[in-house]
Amino acid sequence: MSLKNTHEIDIVRVSSSKIDSVDFDNLTFGTTFTDHMFVCDFREGKWQKAEIKPYAPFLLDPSAKVFHYGQAIFEGMKAYKDESDDVWLFRPDQNFERFNKSAKRMAMPEVDEEIFMSGLHQLIDLEREWVKKGLGNTLYIRPFMIAIGSGVIAAPSTQYRFMIILSPAKSYYSGEVKVIIAEHYSRAANGGIGAAKAAGNYSAQFYPTKLANERGFQQIIWTDDATHTKLEEAGTMNVFFRINDTLYTAPTSERILDGVTRKSLIDLAKRDGIDVAVRPVLVEEIIEAAKDGSLKEIFGAGTAAVVNPIVGFSYQDTYYELPKIENSFALLLKEKLTKIQYKLAEDTFGWTVKI
Amino acid sequence: MSLKNTHEIDIVRVSSSKIDSVDFDNLTFGTTFTDHMFVCDFREGKWQKAEIKPYAPFLLDPSAKVFHYGQAIFEGMKAYKDESDDVWLFRPDQNFERFNKSAKRMAMPEVDEEIFMSGLHQLIDLEREWVKKGLGNTLYIRPFMIAIGSGVIAAPSTQYRFMIILSPAKSYYSGEVKVIIAEHYSRAANGGIGAAKAAGNYSAQFYPTKLANERGFQQIIWTDDATHTKLEEAGTMNVFFRINDTLYTAPTSERILDGVTRKSLIDLAKRDGIDVAVRPVLVEEIIEAAKDGSLKEIFGAGTAAVVNPIVGFSYQDTYYELPKIENSFALLLKEKLTKIQYKLAEDTFGWTVKI
Ligand SMILES: Cc1ncc(COP(=O)(O)O)c(C=O)c1O
Ligand SMILES: Cc1ncc(COP(=O)(O)O)c(C=O)c1O
What we know:
2 copies of one chain form a homodimer. Chain A has helices spanning 65-69, 92-105, 113-126, 199-214, 260-271, 283-292, 329-341, and strands at residues 9-11, 36-43, 46-47, 50-54, 58-60, 72-74, 77-81, 87-90, 138-147, 160-169, 177-181, 219-221, 230-231, 238-243, 246-249, 275-278, 281-282, 295-302, 306-315, 318-321, 352-354. Chain A is an alpha+beta fold. In chain A, helix 5 crosses helix 7. Chain A is globular and about 60 Å long. The N and C termini of chain A lie close together (11 Å). One pyridoxal-5'-phosphate binds next to helix 5 and strand 18 of chain B.
């Protein structure tokens, strides 16, 4: 696969890079940004001239729609550097499609493929130095779109800003991850926006997650809001459950984000003979499996965290600890995926795209 | 009731007002703003110095949390001018309480009552000229708070901006309002943020509302997301149904905003001998009542629109037109409420507060 890189972009470079002031061994996820950003505005019914320019704050009116009505979407992707200093993206077509699916659900204009892909390509190309070699080093890529039109009336904006910013990153989580299974709070409604990467979905989880943190748990596994009997996904990860030697994960739906990591792990598992069942996963069956010892692993899957093993979970005030396991599917799949991303294993699926 | 107005605020005035350039007879709701705005930032665990200054755009980092995670809440209130040129607020205590309830649900810091009330008081006092006399003329007040801390990591911000902006306004809706009863899309989940005035709740409705608009309907009456059998509320209004001579409205819940207009109308109706039942309202019973002729009125209630009569609704592709009615409860209650707000009738409840 290759990127459409035909869109003309005005480029204004910084006079001097700040890269030398960055400690790449001690990065806090999502807080350090590269020298430049990509910006393209939508006005008068169409996308305007695209620009790459020095990363900097910008002005917005106090009545900008994004402040009042949360009309905002984003994507999360990563770039990887291989041993020959080439820089690679992983399935950018998937992020592009999902971005426009989110845009549609939030009544925002879809972004042209040429603008999205050329923006990615030319911005990352300019910032190659920020992508460091070595497993675990990545450049986190954040495409996003916000409603910049003004007016405190609850209706879609007529003006939008599409941007891409880049942040060098190590892995997202550190330490052991314990989760709570949601019994009261929820992240998504039937007929709601759960399947969109819409800004409002994330802040909605902050308070319940804070309550979980206070009880010593890092994350919540959300359940369906109507019955709280089906296990859906975590804050920024889809979730897999291993019972004996089968992996289970919920089908995506209008409540669940269609994760790129999730679908890639499913393909990898299937290719390599691991049994995967995509079907609703009930809280009840996981509790039973935990009790009878057949529940071997739970792990989250998402771009930021890649694969995140979960060491235990709480449900109805009982804590269930997962066994320490030898041949972990989580670690096996993580390794397989990571090797493809860093070009250390053959990419039989054609997922990687060179910048 | 009186406002706590003891908080010290730095005031910087505009050099010349733009008021003379405003056509107060032709205002589009929410698009014209007064000369000044109120701003107070939260940093290092506390609210900083409050300021009133010229209305103007401000700078934000591209990674500001409000852009990525929708951590943003707001309120909507109005100021009214009476015949003696005094300016009045309507139940500001209710908006203040709801603001902090929203803040809590969105993991944002609560605003001190003194800051909220002094901000309202001193800003509106400065902008008295913008509040015009005469029924229907109001100054729409928009307190809001956004997460201004930076970082693309899905966790609460540590920095926030609380602002108040003011917009002179006539009534919100014009023309006849027809609604669709939601059968697939939803605005709120059980255990979600529906009861908070959180930004993300509003953009979530834009797409389904656009679909409704395309079919010739202005608004949607949302139903519970699990079964779509209970009538809940509209985009920015609570909803009342009159069957024979009784008014029905859904109880507020974690899915429904606790509207100030709704609760005031309930009190007014009760005071004046109109039968009100606050209980779940089923789609089924409204359809039956529409068929047998006992459904007399449906109306929305909210600060922007005050009371908004609905002329008909669609459900399962059938359109039900409401009868033209002589002694409309909607218009009667609207008049009673409006008269209190403009100090044309005695405020037996102590709802109005002088600036
Ligand atoms: C809610 C949610 N679920 C799952 C994921 C995982 O998706 P992906 O693997 O595409 O990063 C994300 C994204 O990071 C997410 O925000
Ligand atoms: C979702 C929603 N429901 C109802 C209302 C009505 O509330 P109030 O009467 O306090 O304006 C509003 C606010 O405008 C709202 O946003």
